[in-house]
Design a protein that fits this description.
CATH class: Alpha Beta
Distance between the termini: 33 Å
Helix content: 25-40%
CATH topology: Rossmann fold
Mean pLDDT: 97
Low-confidence stretches: none
Bound molecules: nicotinamide-adenine-dinucleotide
Pfam families: Epimerase
Number of helices: 9
EC number: 5.1.3.20
Oligomer: single chain
Number of domains: 1
Protein name: ADP-glyceromanno-heptose 6-epimerase
GO molecular function: ADP-glyceromanno-heptose 6-epimerase activity; NADP binding
Keywords: Carbohydrate metabolism, Isomerase, Membrane, NADP, Transmembrane, Transmembrane helix
CATH superfamily: NAD(P)-binding Rossmann-like Domain
Length: 336
């Protein structure tokens, strides 16, 4: 579905993190709906390097981009020479900034702040020089365990990832005061959908439960999973928010969720219905009690008002739209 009527002929759009989950979906949105636009992807891709928690340092994967016809640049947003080259040799009209250490459990505080905050500032400077609007990924992790509904202005990050995203938002507010470009921060809640598989264990629980069920395993949930609630949002709605953010009524920081919290038990029940299974759930003790978010639900009133955003996917709709892809990935990637 096309969300804006712009003619993007002769427009150049940079997508950082374009080989990742959300960035690659954005790239295909433009390719399919605005084939006249010039799309450039910058991503460090995966190299095999890991963080101290054992997860990959970056999750970008070429398979997310099979079929993409635009320019693809492999590079690190921390590389100042590369950024200077981009500044001098391109003229961007829009920058969608998705590149980040996206792993919320990463412990490397130095690398997290450098990559998520300091490199973002360098990209903002390029946006200003090019007079390009900046749309960047913030996160619901900025709220930590703040009470629901989560409202912009009431943050309390509990990990360095959430802290880094809040630093990006604070930096953006300063730049909003002193520049003429539109700057929009989108605080995604729990996103799920096609092209997330290569995030490995950091992919959504929707995909992970889907694959457990397809393997014939009993879904394993924490005790009281009907009371552990999150605002799960389908990728299509995240794309909608990004596209509408190209022309905001006002620069700002906006929540991107459905505005409705659903439980982990709901995920498994809807998946079993879609996959036509009746596996018995197994319940295990939640080892994270005390440090775990039990309820997230985005307040999306300002997102609706300032961006014209209107979520279109309840969890039932999102899983229905996604289930064939969950099966394809299981057959072609997991089982092979
Ligand atoms: N998926 C979610 O539920 C969610 C929720 C809140 C916020 N976010 C944010 O949205 C953005 C996109 O997330 P995603 O889910 O697509 O994650 P992802 O890990 O799939 O995408 C991030 C991409 O950035 C690339 N990258 C990492 N470090 C880089 C560097 N130094 N230089 C260049 N590229 C680099 C990775 O290779 C990867 O392709 C991230 O900023 C993330 O923090 C995601």
């Amino acid at each position: 579905m096309r969300y804006i009527n712009d003619d993007l002929k002769d427009k150049t759009i940079l997508i950082t993190g374009g080989a990742g989950f959300i960035g690659s979906n954005l790239a295909f949105y433009f390719q399919n709906n605005h084939p006249e636009a010039n799309i450039i992807i910058l991503d460090s891709f995966r190299s095999g390097k890991t963080l101290s928690n054992g997860n990959l340092k970056s999750f970008g994967h070429f398979k997310n981009l099979i079929g993409f016809r635009g320019e693809v640049i492999s590079g690190d947003i921390n590389d100042k020479d590369l950024l200077l080259n981009l500044e001098l040799n391109y003229k961007f009209d829009y920058i969608f900034h998705e590149a980040a250490i996206s792993d919320t459990t990463a412990l490397e505080q130095d690398l997290m702040i450098k990559t998520n905050v300091n490199a973002y500032k360098d990209l903002l400077e390029i946006a200003i020089k090019h007079n390009a609007n900046m749309i960047y990924a913030s996160s619901a992790a900025t709220y930590g365990n703040a009470l629901s509904p989560q409202i912009v202005g009431r943050e309390s990050p509990q990990n360095v990832y959430g802290f880094s995203k809040l630093c990006m938002d604070n930096l953006s507010k300063e730049y909003m005061k002193k520049s003429n470009i539109a700057i929009v921060g989108l605080r995604y809640f729990n996103v799920y959908g096609p092209r997330e598989y290569f995030k490995n264990t950091t992919a959504s629980m929707i995909l992970q439960f889907g694959h457990q069920i397809l393997a014939g395993k009993n879904p394993r949930l924490f005790e009281n999973s009907d009371k552990i609630l999150r605002d799960f949002i389908y990728i299509e709605d995240v794309i909608q928010a990004n596209i509408k953010a190209m022309h905001p009524k006002e620069s700002g920081i906006y929540n991107v969720g459905t505005g409705r919290a659903r439980s982990f038990q709901d995920i498994v029940d809807i998946l079993q219905k879609e996959l036509d299974t009746t596996l018995k759930c197994e319940y295990i003790k939640n080892p994270f009690i005390g440090s775990y978010q039990f309820h997230t639900e985005a307040d999306i009133s300002s997102t609706k008002e300032k961006l014209g955003y209107e979520p279109g996917f309840e969890m039932e709709d999102g899983i229905k739209a996604y289930v064939d892809e969950i099966k394809r990935v299981y057959a072609q990637e997991v089982k092979k």
